[in-house]
Specification:
With about 140 residues, the protein is α/β, with parallel strands linked by helices. It contains five helices and five strands. Helix 2 links the parallel strand 1 and strand 2.
Amino acid sequence: MIKKIMVAVAMIIGVAAPAFAEGQNHRVAFHVDQNDPQLMNMTLNNVQNVSKYYESVGDTVEIEVVAYGPGLHMLRADTSPVSDRIATISLELDNVTFAACGNTHRNMEAKSGNAVTLLDEAEMVPSGVVQLVMLQEQGWAYIRP
């Protein structure tokens, strides 16, 4: 009801109200660059809450979690403290993707001298920072928990 009233007020005063349009699609990028389980869990809580909220108001949302630097541990098969949550979220929410920084991955492999395996849910991107820039240039909202 409030949403409809706000749209009506916006129309009366002659301003666009894209944030109140029914059925709107939102795109949100979450940034993780710390090897901190509390931060990773907070990010995943935010991902679930954002998805649930937009579904409850009849909107859709695309969400991408971008991990780089020490935050890549979130998506490493051997060190992720949240791998079970990521697997569950990926099964429950088809609107969430996880992007792993290729630069960080390459550096971690070089430093350890071993292959670094990522979670099945992770997709490698050339650069986490560049990925965030590209998403923002395409109109994605940027969230750094």
